[in-house]
Write a structure and sequence with these properties.
With 400 residues, this protein is mostly helical. It has 20 helices and three strands.
């Protein structure tokens, strides 16, 4: 039985080898056929792209498109290169000419419209880009179109449309946009605050907190509205809520809180509250506010004691500057050495303290809810970091 089985395989194996050889020949012929339909300029363009020679790549792909004008893929590759090199007008002309072709199928026409919409977006022609993105019916383009529309609405500061678009995009993609939506409501509230419509602003901020219960900005603005109306204790109650959201942001409202405590004749309570925050959360920005208040209300000796204790607990140039200032005022002498040390410390602080975006590294002297460079929301830390800037380091090295 075993012998018959082995002979049977000897008869079949050559057949398998023959079939495999035929299949391989067919695959090779198909591959060669497909590659020969691509012009040589296409491969030259790919080589230039790999070498980051974009100008030469544009020339090569332009030549490839001329050699094979029916290939949409080549047109799209060239249009993408035009956008990357800033030649958006050429990209627009390329895709407009494609749309004029009568023989395009509906899926092909949608693909060209999607590319043209990207051209308009890159060129800053937001109205035209919006119209095209809205008109893309094909489900394949739904999410990318919504992303592009959201970018347009944020740039144009059309916050109501941004909220609708972000909510729809969240539903389709499953990616949360709660932080962004809450910030859009805050932007709408800011518009109402400027228009002195406090009730409408309150409504928008309530929606912001519904979207994101940890929206610090909403409570900051609610406190601002109440303080402007003279309702200082209500304002303080809103600002206090920040402790239960993200306490590291208390430094943004510490000065406002102390002003409202003073206006409500509750300054001692306010100073005690700030002391509690400092002991609990150890935020440098809180220390700066408390130091200034202590210096004004209790004098230089108390301020110097506060700064000295803080310096022992948590050394920093800011606190050292405060100690030197308070000590000079308390001693009431014109000590040139103290003044020289203090000036040196202040020069260092002036180049160190800054907010750095954790998305793109943008450096700002003031806090921004939205990074001015990359437009990310809540990407700046709540506290400025005392990091020597690159410019200062280079300057020092050059001086050496």
């Amino acid at each position: 039985m075993m012998i018959e089985f082995e002979y049977w395989w000897l008869l079949v194996l050559p057949l398998f080898f023959t079939l495999g050889w035929i299949a391989a020949r067919v695959d090779i012929r198909q591959l060669l056929s497909e590659s020969t339909t691509l012009p040589a300029a296409y491969f030259k363009g790919l080589n230039f792209l790999i070498g980051d020679q974009h100008d030469k790549a544009v020339e090569a792909f332009s030549e490839a498109v001329q050699a094979n004008s029916d290939s949409l893929e080549l047109h799209f590759a060239l249009g993408s290169l035009f956008r990357r090199t800033g030649e958006t007008d050429r990209a627009i002309n390329l895709h407009v000419n494609l749309l004029d072709k009568k023989e395009l199928t509906e899926p092909q026409r949608n693909a060209v419209k999607a590319e043209l919409a990207q051209d308009y977006l890159k060129a800053g022609l937001f109205d035209r880009a919006e119209e095209l993105f809205k008109g893309l019916e094909d489900q394949r383009y739904k999410q990318p179109a919504l992303c592009a529309l959201l970018e347009i609405y944020v740039r144009e500061r059309e916050w109501a449309q941004a909220i609708t678009t972000a909510t729809e995009l969240e539903r389709l993609s499953g990616v949360p946009f709660r932080v962004e939506v809450a910030q859009y409501y805050c932007e709408l509230a800011m518009n109402f605050i400027i228009a002195q419509n406090a009730d409408a602003a309150h409504s928008q901020l309530a929606l912001a907190l519904d979207a994101n219960k940890n929206c610090i900005r909403a409570n900051v603005l609610l406190g601002d509205i109440e303080a402007s109306a003279g309702q200082h204790q209500t304002a303080i109650s809103y600002w206090k809520r920040i402790e239960f959201q993200q306490p590291e942001y208390l430094g943004l409202v510490a000065g406002k809180m102390l002003k409202s405590y003073r206006a409500a004749n509750l300054l001692k309570e306010g100073l005690a509250q700030l002391n509690t925050y400092i002991e609990t959360y150890k935020l440098p920005s809180l220390m700066s506010v408390l130091y200034e208040a202590t210096l004004t209300e209790e004098g230089a000796e108390s301020a110097a004691k506060l700064a000295r204790n803080e310096l022992i607990r948590q050394p920093s140039l800011n606190t050292l500057d405060q100690l030197l200032q308070a000590r000079a005022m308390a001693d009431d002498v014109n000590n040139q050495d103290v003044q020289l040390i203090q000036q040196t410390v202040r020069n260092a602080i002036g180049n160190r303290a800054a907010y750095h975006c954790n998305q793109c590294g943008f450096r700002a002297k003031q806090y921004h809810w939205q990074c001015p460079a990359c437009n990310a929301w809540e990407s700046l830390p709540a506290e400025p970091s005392e990091t020597i800037s690159r410019e200062m380091t280079v300057k020092k090295s050059n001086q050496k």
